[in-house]
Amino acid sequence: MDAVGTHFPPLIGFFAIVAYVLVLFLISFYRSRAATLSDYYIGSHSSTWWLITLGMISDSVSGVTFISVPGTVFSQGYSYFQIVLGYSLGYLVITTILLPLYYRTKVISIYAYLGDRFGPEAQKTASILFIASRTFGSAARLYISVMVLHQFLFAPYGWSPLWSFFFAMAVIVLYTVKGGIKSLVWTEAYQSVVLLAVIGGLGVFLWQKLPQALHTLIAPQLFFTDPLKPNFFLKQILGGMLITASMNGLDQNIMQMNLSCKRLWDAQKNMLSLSVVMLVVNFVFLGLGALAQEVYRIDQIELPHLPTGAIAFDRTLSGLAFGHLGIFAGLIFIIGLSAATFSSAGTILPSIASSIEIDLMPKSWKGRIPIRFTHVAVAVLIFGLILGIYFVQAQSLIDLVLRCSGYTYGPLIGLFGLGIFTSIELQAKKIPWVAVGAIFFTATLDLTSARIFNGYTLGVELIAVNAFAFVVLSQGIKKKSVP
Question: I need a surface site. Which of 255, 321, 345, 393 has the fewest CB within 10 A?
C-alpha cells in the first residue's frame, strides 16, 4: 500500500487552513493597532517574557523540522537528540554572555555591537551573513513545507504550486507587516499552542495503534560512539551548542524577540525556560518517529519512496497521518504543519528588514524609505528564491542551500568571540575578505574531509571549524600597535 494514501479529503484541509489563518489575522490586527516604529522593532520593550518563550517554540520548529525530524528515527535512531542536548548548552551561552552584552549596549540590531567594536565594515559583514543565511534558508524551508501542503490540498484539483507559494507568502506578509515584533509575540504564542496540541494529538493516535507503545519509545539508540561518523555524540553535542549559540544568539531574528522584553532578567528567564521546553518538544518529535516506525512494521505498510527509488523518510509521518490514521489525524497534521511553516517564516521579515535599515542602509536613506516597504521587499525576494528552486526542480539544490546557510554563522562566532573575549583590533575593511576566506576553506574541507582524514566526515561541528578558520585568518589583519 502506498504510504501517502488517498483517504484525506483536500477540501476539509483547505477550510481548516482558512479558519486557522483567520484567527491569525484577528490576533495580528488586534495587537498591531496604532503600532509605532518602536513596536515594530522591539515591541517598545514591553513584551511578556513567558509569551516570548511560548512563541519561540513554533519559531524554532520550522515546517522542515515538523516533517523531517520524526523521519530521522527510521535511519538514525535518536541521534538527533544528541544535538538537542547541545542546544541546551547553547542557550546557557546566550543567557550568560550574549544577552547581558546586548542589554548593556542598548542595541536594536545586535550587529551594531560589532560596528562599535571593530568598525562599520564588521557590522555590515555580519548583517550580510545573517541576511544571506536567513533569506536562502527561509526560501528552501518554505518551499519544502508548502509543497507538502500543496500535495495534499491543491494538487488533486490540478492547481499549480505557484498559487500555493503566493498564498503562503501573502499570509505571512499580511499578518506581520503592521505590528512587527509587537504583534508577532502574540501570533507566535498562538501558533505554538496549536503546534503543541497537534504533536500531542498525533502522539495519541500513534500510541493507540501499538500494543507496547512505551517499549517502542525507549527502544531506539540514543548515543553513538563511533568518532568517524557524523553522529558521534561528542561532536553532535558540541555542534548543537554552537548552532544554538550562533543561529539564535548571534541571529537578529531570535534576539530581536528577546530584546523586546522589559528587562535583562526577563530575557534570561525566556532563554532558560526555552532550553528546557525544546528538550521536551524535540523528544516528542523523535518519539512520534519511533511510534510511526513501529506502526509501519506492524501494519506492514510500504515506506514512501522518491522517484529515484530511495526511501523518503521525511514523508513517513505525513504518510500515516493522511493515509492510515483517519481524517482527523490528517486534519491536525495540516494545521500543525501550517503553524510551523507560518511561524518560522513570519519572524524573518521584521528581523531582516530591521537589519537592512539599521546595519546596511546609508544614513541619507534612513527615514526616507519606510521600514514596512523594506519588509514587503524582503518578502518579494524570498518569494523569488522559492520560484527559482521550483523551476530548477533540484532536490540537491535545496540540500545545498540548507547546508550552506550553516557556513555563514562561523564568521559571526569568530567576530563576536574576538570582540567579547579579546582586546585586539582588526583592520575593518579587510574583515569581509577574511569572512569569505573562512567560508571557502570550510566548504572545501567539507567536500574533501572523508578523503583527507581516512573516512572522517564533518557533521554539525562544521560551524566550529568555520569559526576557528575565521579566527586564525583574522590574525593576519590585526592592527599594528603604535609604540
Answer: 393
* Residue with cell string 548515543: 223
Q: Is 52 helix (H, G, I), strand (E, B) or coil?
A: helix
What b/e readout covers 327-360, taking b as 16+ CB neighbours within 10 angstroms? eebbbbbbbbbbbbbbbbbbbbbbbbbbbbbbbb
Measured distance CA(458)–CA(450) in Å, rounded: 8
CA distance 240 to 403: 15
User: Is 67 contained in some domain?
Assistant: yes
- Give 191-246 pLDDT, tens digit per residue: 889 989 999 999 999 998 888 888 888 888 888 888 777 778 888 898 888 888 88
d(CA 250, CA 228): 29
Confirm whether 420 is domain-assigned.
no
Q: Residue 140: inside a domain, yes or no?
A: yes
Residues in the chain: 483
Question: Is 429 part of any domain?
Answer: no
Q: Which grid cell sits at 148?
A: 507538502
pLDDT at position 201, please?
92
Count of CB atoms situated within 10 Å of the CB of 69: 23
Higher-pLDDT residue of 314 and 86 is 86
